[in-house]
Predict the structure.
Amino acid sequence: MKIVTGEISKYKMMLNGHGSQQEQGINYWETYSPVVMWTKVRLLITLAKIDGWPSRQLDFILAYPQADVDGDIYMRLPKGFKIQEKHPKEG
């Protein structure tokens, strides 16, 4: 948004899949989500600092949206969203 004029310069949006409506064996076959306890992370960072171990910080940006999908994904369009038959620029 331009502060002086109040004009919106870009729009942002996020779509989320509603996974609670899936059924095992039909929509998905396995789940895996690795998690770690914060006490173990802190312990490892402390040991690395005390013993002089090299360490790095990593961030996997958009890890889930970039993951391979084995099946089709269907969703309802958000309220107010309309589909055009042809893209305006295609003529």
Observations:
- The chain has a mean pLDDT of 77.
- Residues 19 and 42 are 32 Å apart (CA to CA).
- The helical segments are 38-51.
